[in-house]
Protein: ATP-dependent 6-phosphofructokinase
Organism: Perilla frutescens var. hirtella
Amino acid sequence: MDAALSSTSPPLYLSRNSVPSTSLNAKITSVTSLSFANFVLTKKFSLRRPSISRHNRLIKVRTSEDGANKLSEDQNGDFIFEDVPHLTSFLPDLPSYTNPLKKTQAYAIVKRTFVSPEDVVAQKVVVQKETPRGIHFRRAGPREKVYFQSEEVRACIVTCGGLCPGINTVIREIVCGLNIMYGVDEILGIQGGYRGFYSKNTVQLTPKSVNDIHKRGGTFLQTSRGGHDTIKIVDNIQDRGINQVYIIGGDGTQKGAAAIYKEVERRGIKVAVAGIPKTIDNDIAVIDKSFGFDTAVEEAQRAINAAHVEVESVENGVGIVKLMGRYSGFIAMHATLASRDVDCCLIPESPFYLEGQGGLFEFVEQRLKENGHMVIVLAEGAGQEYVAQSFHSSSEKDASGNRLLLDVGLWLTQKIKDHFTNVRKMAINMKYIDPTYMIRAIPSNASDNIYCTLLAQSAIHGAMAGYTGFTVGPVNSRHAYIPISRVTETQNIVKLTDRMWARLLASTNQPSFLSCEVVQERFAKKIDDDFDNLKITSI
Ligand SMILES: Nc1ncnc2c1ncn2[C@@H]1O[C@H](COP(=O)(O)OP(=O)(O)OP(=O)(O)O)[C@@H](O)[C@H]1O
Ligand SMILES: O=P(O)(O)OC[C@H]1O[C@](O)(CO)[C@@H](O)[C@@H]1O
Ligand SMILES: [Mg+2]
């Protein structure tokens, strides 16, 4: 690749068939980062279809640092680069500076301190010889040039949405990283989520004030749902002279971050917006896994173990453990796979039914006959339609517009009790454990702490280098800068058609609940939807 193509502005990829190459330069200068994103999305979609001919090769166009558009063709096959915006895309005259990192003792003897501007991270690592190379993201890490001088930086950090182990570690590492690596002193904490920008006072954050916070669960800055008002938030950012915004939160929060970035760009102000993805549900698209997830799965083991101890100590013991997972069953699936004490795992993605052949009641009875006890792990979002029918409830929403769930754990406990007592005339011992908030209110474990450090430092390097409107996260174990829209356009769910769910079924030997017509109908639709929203779930 041509070293002169080291770009700071978003590179553009266009189909040779769609744009005559002679007019490329003229066309590209008028493409905004927004329309660029849309353009790439269109092309990306068609590339996923294997029927696309290899003649429809992509050529890529980059805007190099001197502003000249250059064109090169990837020789190894079709290749899509989804870059993140850069401050220079709307502030072209912004001066750059030598990165001070090399002068810090931490990096003094590092051989390759800086990430090459040519480094990209592939979203797909398993490829076939003849298939396109697929989507790539800009590799995260320190850059040779930065677009902020240390004394000029006035950063802020905000945390939004639900709790998750490790939030405090991320806050701590942003503060310490900015200060130690880049000599930044001005770091503000926005309290109470997005609404804190315009309704609360800020708190000054220093390495000393955040030194111990990683040992506590929760968020040192407090959080909230709802209250996102883009104009008020950006007004506040401008009024306070903030020029780097670090936003920690889930899919809703990242949508809010995208709105802030767009407003900042519209106003043409020098503010870098960096998103750090957080969610206990692990439902954020593109990234390998969200921080705190492993800690939560580990904590869930304690609840499962307690249920198992309880039910094996009584006759016909049936334990139910309800875990978090609004729309996705990752925590339940992983906790089940890790534990081996679980007989059946129920998640929102996999429909189930209670009565008749192949149903849950039949399976419970079979396990009680075989083992004398059994444990069910239930994701809170599973079977919501049944619960709603039973309770004749209308769907309520939280301040962010998320559906409020009904207690499927209580519902299932009651259903099993009724069935065995009234229909089967069998005495059973039900134990229902609901550790929902306990698994996310704890501090992060060792590996999540390290992961949080990497996220924080990658976000800092990206913002200092002038990237903006990005989410940072590991893609196939390499940290990358991902356009925010890519992580918000879909939510990760457990794919029943993937091998991971098959591994769980093979491990628990539970029914797949596919023998009921109603479920079969829904299941078929689910598979179609899965393919339509094809994305990689890569744990
Ligand atoms: N589409 C949106 N545009 C702008 N802001 C949004 C949007 N969706 C949600 N937000 C804001 O983002 C914040 C957090 O959203 P939400 O409560 O959905 O949590 P989340 O970030 O998805 O995290 P979690 O996974 O814990 O639920 C809220 O302040 C909400 O107002
Ligand atoms: O904290 P709240 O508002 O009760 O929300 C709980 C929800 O948040 C999540 O933990 C996601 O953050 C879901 O698993 C759960 O349904
Ligand atoms: Mg969410």
